[in-house]
Amino acid sequence: MEELALGFSDTKELYRCYMPFLKNGGLFVRSARHYRLGQSLALSVTLPDALEPIVVSGKVAWVSPLGAQSANPAGIGVAFIDDKHGLSNRIEKLLSSMQGSIEPTYTM
Q1: What number of other Cβ atoms are within 10 A of residue 33's Cβ?
Q2: Residues in domain PilZ (predicted)?
Q3: Which residues contact 94 (CB under 8 A, 6 or more apart)?
Q4: Burial class (CB in 10 A: 0-12, 13-18, 19+), 80
Q5: Could you give the CA distance from residue 40 to residue 50 in angstroms, rounded to a whole number?
Q6: Of 75, 86, 103, 96, which is closest to residue 50 (Cα–Cα)?
Q7: What are the residues whose beta carbons fall under 8 Å from the beta carbon of 5, sequence distance 6 or more?
Q8: Helix (H) or strand (E) holding 60
């Protein structure tokens, strides 16, 4: 299984990438590479407040190709499948002050 590394230096970028509307949460990953829906991936995610990455398995649930209709970057949304380390909960705690924000995200 392919592993993608994501490092977030601030909560603003994390907010733009987080996909809370997916059942177990997920993250948008900027990429010009082609992925197919349902493709299995592992994400190695380093949060702004962490020194060590958290690894979570997921599946591609969203594809935003190069030249999409919006100004959003090309990439994929990866839905968390096995979140045994509580990545979704940790992200939501970090973003709690931004709930209800009108800041645009990379997805919806």
Answers
A1: 10
A2: 9-95
A3: 11, 14, 47, 48, 49
A4: buried
A5: 25
A6: 86
A7: 43, 44, 46, 53
A8: strand 54-64
Tell me the β-bridge partners of 60.
78
Structure tokens at 63: 């594809």
**Residues 45-100: tens digit of each pLDDT:** 999 988 899 999 999 998 887 766 666 788 999 999 988 889 999 999 999 887 76
As a residue count, the chain comes to 108
Residue type at position 95: L
Amino acid at 31: S
Q: What is the spatial distance between Cα 61 and Cα 78, in angstroms, rounded to a whole number?
A: 6
Q: What is the pLDDT of residue 68?
A: 64
First to last CA, the chain: 27
Query: What pLDDT score does 105 carry?
Result: 75
User: What pTM does this model have?
Assistant: 0.87
